[in-house]
Design brief:
CATH class of the largest domain: Mainly Beta
Radius of gyration: 35 Å
Number of domains: 3
CATH superfamily of the largest domain: Head domain of nucleotide exchange factor GrpE
CATH architecture of the largest domain: Roll
Low-confidence stretches: 178-182
Number of strands: 6
Mean pLDDT: 84
Largest sheet: 3 strands, antiparallel
Distance between the termini: 99 Å
CATH topology of the largest domain: Nucleotide Exchange Factor Grpe, Chain A, domain 2
Strand order of the largest sheet: 1-4-5
Length: 182
């Protein structure tokens, strides 16, 4: 097959016909075999290119997820400290509630919560809500509305849209419902 230069005019016919018209012999089965090979190579290249695009997309998603949840273990380690601060503030006797040092501890607790919220940590609302095993861990059942959380032992937290720690709760078993309603 002769290479075409820019001065040659293209007449719309495939080059194989042009070569055949010039008198060169091109075997039909060999040309068909080469075309089939070229199509296979093209299809293989296209699959490889699509695989690479998918790989890049998957790696970018994994990198974003890693960055979003990289601090999860650190935050899990800090949540018991927050729990202790909250319990300490709840246990302050009434005669000391207005002292400056108690207010200082309250400010530390608020600052701690604000820092965690800045990292995407949110508490799970549990009290009075229907029990959901995806977000709550039932410790026991007690008298109260069936399937409704009646007490929270330990707050649960979410990190962005992922469960960090389930809320540990007491769920109503349906006993005493009629007494409470009356």
């Amino acid at each position: 097959m002769m290479p075409r230069n820019s001065e040659d005019e293209y007449n719309g016919e495939p080059e194989t016909e042009a070569v055949e018209k010039e008198g060169a012999e091109v075997p039909g089965p060999a040309l068909a075999g080469e075309r089939k090979k070229a199509e296979e190579y093209l299809a293989s290249w296209q699959r490889a290119q699509a695989d690479f695009v998918n790989y890049k997309r998957r790696m970018e998603q994994e990198r974003l997820d890693f960055n979003r949840y990289a601090n999860a273990n650190l935050i899990l380690g800090l949540l018991p400290v927050l729990d202790d601060l909250e319990r300490a503030l709840e246990a302050v006797p009434a005669k000391y509630k207005n002292h400056d040092w108690v207010e200082g501890v309250r400010l530390v607790e608020r600052k701690f919560k604000t820092s965690l919220e800045g990292q995407g940590v949110k508490p799970i609302q549990a009290l009075g809500e229907p029990f959901d095993p995806n977000f709550h861990e039932a410790l026991r059942q007690d008298k109260g509305r069936e399937g409704i959380i009646i007490e929270v032992f330990q707050k649960g937290y979410m990190l962005n849209d992922k469960l960090l720690r389930p809320a540990r709760v007491v769920v109503g078993n349906g006993e005493g419902e009629t007494k409470e309603e009356e």
